[in-house]
Amino acid sequence: MKIYNYNTDNGEFLSEGLARVNPLEEGKYLLPANATFDTPIDSEEGKAVCYIDGEWVLEDDYRGETVYDNEGNPSVVDYIGVIKDGFALVNPMADSILSDYIQIYRKERESEPVSNGSGDDEITVIPNLRTMFTLETLDNAGNGVSAYSAENGTFDMTATQVTNLNNACKLHIAKLFIAQGAVKSAHTTTPYTTIAAIETAFDNAYNS
């Protein structure tokens, strides 16, 4: 006579064996604790066969899976049954954090120095709002400027140099926003999983 052993805590099927004959009752068998004569049901992927309330049932089995709490902290499931309240298989923070980082990285790159070219007359600036407003105003007026304070020194700029530097700043900012849009669009289709992947994709889009 077969018996089927199950876990004391969660009822999970463990093994089968042969029951011992009851020496006191002819034709009867001894049934040890945490065992049953009932034949277990077939298992399914992602399920555990458990003996609960006198019958075999299928319980959700996420053991070994990583789950995340509401703040995105990971842990590994070590129990049978539904995912506990306050946890989920999908990190609730991951997508929003990575999506936000696309904009954060764009803002970081806005502070990169921009120059009007190379050589002795190279002028380098950080394209912040004040700088871009000044350059745009000068450019629209068609004026040069004396003793312009830039990141790499103080310069006199001709109207042409002002135009070149203004255009370089505007091109830099435009390329950053184009790259941000491209990466966000790609992230929607196939989400990036690391910050490094976002930075690489952004830089590639900026340089393309």
Distance between the termini: 74 Å
The rough form would be described as rod-shaped
* Percentage of residues assigned to helices: 25-40%
Biggest sheet statistics: 3 strands, antiparallel
Give the count of structural domains: 3
Q: Could you list the spans in which at least 5 consecutive residues all have pLDDT below 50? A: none
Widest sheet, order of strands: 2-1-3
What does this structure look like?
This protein has three domains: 59 residues, no CATH class; 29 residues, no CATH class; 114 residues, no CATH class. 36% of the residues lie in helices and 24% in strands. The strands form five sheets. A three-stranded antiparallel β-sheet has the order 2-1-3, with no helix packed on it. It has a three-stranded antiparallel β-sheet with strand order 7-6-8, with no helix packed on it. Strand 11 and strand 12 form a beta hairpin.
Topology overview:
Blueprint: E1 2-6, E2 13-18, E3 35-36, E4 47-52, E5 55-60, E6 66-69, E7 74-76, E8 87-88, H1 94-110, E9 114-115, E10 124-125, H2 129-141, E11 145-150, E12 153-157, H3 159-189, H4 195-207
Antiparallel strand pairs: 1-2, 1-3, 4-5, 6-7, 6-8, 9-10, 11-12
Helix pairs in contact: 1-3, 1-4, 2-3, 3-4
What labels would you give this structure?
single chain; 208 residues; alpha+beta; 3-stranded antiparallel β-sheet; 4 helices; 12 strands; rod-shaped
Can you summarize this structure?
With 208 residues, the protein is of the alpha+beta class. The chain contains 4 helices and 12 strands, in the order E-E-E-E-E-E-E-E-H-E-E-H-E-E-H-H.
